[in-house]
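ok trying again, last paste got cut off:
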Amino acid sequence: MREALANIAFINPGTNKTLRDEPRVYINKYKIDKKELKKQLIPTDEKLLRLENYEEFIDKRSEIISTEISNYMKNLYPQFYANQK
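nice, full thing came through this time. structure:
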């Protein structure tokens, strides 16, 4: 598994230590709502939350993060992006 910026979640260290299972297991165990996953820019497709699909998960989350950053920048600097084609 490669280390990736797209594999970072904003949780406290204590919670992080308790999450030893693959994401789909602890998401179901703790009943984490899809709305909460979306807040962290985590793909909600359950197949991507399986450990064997880690690379696909990273690719998809990277895409989501990139889109969100682009949208944020477009809103922050609309005059710059208005001239882009």
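cool. Residues 5-82 form one domain. The chain has one domain: 5-82.
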